[in-house]
Amino acid sequence: MSAEARPDTADHSGLHKFCSAVFYAGSSFLITVVNKTVLTSFRFPSYLCLGIGQMITTVVVLYVAKKSKTVQFQDFDKSIPFKIFPLPLLYVGNHVTGLASTKKLSLPMFTVLRKFTILMTMILEVYVLRKTFPKRLVYSVVAIVFGAMVAASSDLAFDVEAYTFILLNDAFTATNSVYMKKKLGTEGLGKYGVLFYNSMIIVIPTLLASAFTGDLHKAVTFEDWVQATFIVCFLMSCVMGFVLMYSIVLCSYYNSALTTAVVGAIKNVAVAYIGIFVGGDYLFSWTNFIGLSICMSGGLVYSYFTFKSKALGDNSERTRELKIRITEESTERVCPS
């Protein structure tokens, strides 16, 4: 079987898949901690303006990279908005609701309720990408959701607005992941083009919205702009916003939307338990802690079955390919040209 006949395997090696997944997990972990520091520890008043800073950073970095010929992507034309739609709307929705929920929820509860992204992603992949999943994966998802519900039922810092934001964020994240995978595979925009035009198309409307709501004024008049520590954390958040979006695109490109959600679940194991001691806004209760543990255990089991089945599939594919090669070589010996 020739390399040309199987381009996906050549382009998406196991090393690429693994490294992109680890890159996404690390980026997601770091930006959660940095955003939590900016929005909670420093009490920065506008998560919307923090998101705008991340969008502007993405546009500037990719524009400079394109001009210096470090990266390449399609030049803007009137077909771009139609090609990329609805990703910009999903992108800003994911961005804003994610930052809002980060500000309003403790890190452990944030990561627990983010588990619903996995269930939503699975449902969307079934209906949008026409995928099917084995029962063991479905059962592990049920365990994840059950643990999240147990933890949430005893959340001593329950906030209706915060829970609304995090569940909206789950929906935006799942939809964004599925449609990003679809666009990367069919529209020919490329990884960098998706990132650049996502941010460029939506940054001006978001900036106008922040000015209209008064968020921009709150951000500009924030008193901690004179503190070097806050400025460093704010700039780190802006840079990590770009890095996170790039890592999501990269992981979705080399893997599947569901694998990206699984990697996020693995990352959340570390974030949730560290968040008990970092951030200062977690209120301990045994029911909540047990729910956290059930949720994280379900995430690990889910991840184990997913990557185990993927490894078995890769081995099976290599075995079939080897058999085909042996058959072809035997045929050539019996019937030489």
From TrEMBL:
One of its GO terms (cellular component) is membrane. Residues 23-303 form the Sugar phosphate transporter domain. The keyword Transmembrane applies. Coiled coil: none annotated. Keywords: Membrane, Transmembrane, Transmembrane helix. It is a multi-pass membrane protein. Its main location: membrane. InterPro entries: Sugar_P_trans_dom, TPT_transporter. It holds the Pfam family TPT. It is found in: Membrane. The chain crosses the membrane at residues 21-38, 44-64, 112-130, 137-156, 162-180, 192-213, 225-246, 258-278, 284-305. This is UDP-N-acetylglucosamine/UDP-glucose/GDP-mannose transporter-like. It comes from Echeneis naucrates (Live sharksucker). The gene is slc35d2.
